[in-house]
């Protein structure tokens, strides 16, 4: 009887697997070529943002290219969502510090987006015959690439942001868009009513049709917050972009959606109830990383059938020495750990020397924590070196003297390619960028709330 039960379970599992594979193949076929060059839906991924609220982490890199979860970059999530949803044509709009983002995306091989027809295309601002113009708003960026979209003659255009952590089936959103015969569908998620005033809020009827928009209302009428993810029927979007092209800083939330609403277009909400995180602040970025190492993580990176793909470098295996202690942490390939790591996320190629301690922290790739150094509740970017016996993230809390709205949450934040000398102490709500020396630390300390930004570096 036991054996028969096992056979039944295996058969059910096998059948579910076959069904899922069939669905994925069907999805891919739906979005493949309908005629020469034509696609049913293409995605436009906005990835040009500076991410100024991440402080020194984005001094030299665009926010979507910031590392996440010890292995990924933030842009991996919407790109993986696209290919998992059967969308094989993605335009990535870049602007601020695009080099690392461009290098990471390449020709799209990790996401199966290296294709002759479609695939991934990086779309930076470019000089036109009459002028050269930066992207001045989210919708302006799309307007400047109308010819790219027209080249595929899509029925629908999916607008995405490159700086959120989530998994979403855009195919299900498109199905609802068609079912409602909508002109625009906006992804929205419920938020606690007491927090609704922080978001753009949509007010819907019982069928999900949007009747009203409220931008950060003092007294919200709804708790459905816009996620900045839109599906447009292409003729509607094209008309709106051309009509509103002269609006200063033309934006979807401020200009395009209200224009469509005033024109009587059918606009619906697609309610999303999964995990979604805007990692736009140091606090939310740190928190999202820490959530990955919970015993049962709220956001699961290990699902077999909705994988997150990323560019993989050839790196040797990690090494954990007999002197090491590693608890409740993510550690990347090529790491050498001789000291203590607890409740932390480590990127690839990180070295934690003997006697060093890392707790409640994010350490990005190729950073070295020298002997005896102690790191607590800190974010340390790529290619840094923390000197012997240095202490990072210690002291009483104090407000940042650099930017209290950015450097908060009692975090110590160190930007890329920075060096911290031996035997110094760095407090909370601090920011450091560049190669520092003992002379930069009076009495061997950077007090809580302090900062050191070396010449040529930005905050």
Provide structural commentary.
This protein has 9 helices and 33 strands. It has 459 residues and is of the alpha/beta class. The longest helix has 30 residues, at 2-31. Mean pLDDT is 87; it is low at 1-26 and 28-36.
Count the strands? 33
Overall 3D geometry?
globular
Radius of gyration: 24 Å
The major sheet is characterized as: 9 strands, mixed
- End-to-end separation in angstroms reads 67 Å
Report the sheet-strand fraction: 15-25%
Q: Helix count?
A: 9
Helix content: 10-25%
**Low-confidence segments:** 1-26, 28-36
Write the layout of secondary structure elements.
Layout: H1 2-31, E1 41-46, E2 67-68, E3 72-73, H2 76-84, E4 89-93, H3 99-105, E5 119-123, H4 138-143, H5 146-150, E6 156-161, E7 164-166, H6 170-179, E8 184-190, E9 200-204, E10 210-215, E11 224-233, H7 234-243, H8 252-262, E12 267-271, E13 276-278, H9 282-291, E14 319-320, E15 325-327, E16 330-331, E17 336-337, E18 340-342, E19 345-346, E20 351-352, E21 357-359, E22 362-363, E23 368-369, E24 374-376, E25 378-380, E26 385-386, E27 391-392, E28 412-414, E29 419-420, E30 425-426, E31 430-433, E32 445-446, E33 451-453
Parallel strand pairs: 1-4, 1-6, 4-5, 8-12, 14-17, 15-18, 16-19, 17-20, 18-21, 19-22, 20-23, 21-24, 22-25, 23-26, 24-27, 25-28, 26-29, 27-30, 28-31, 30-32, 31-33
Antiparallel strand pairs: 2-3, 6-11, 7-13, 8-11, 9-10, 9-11
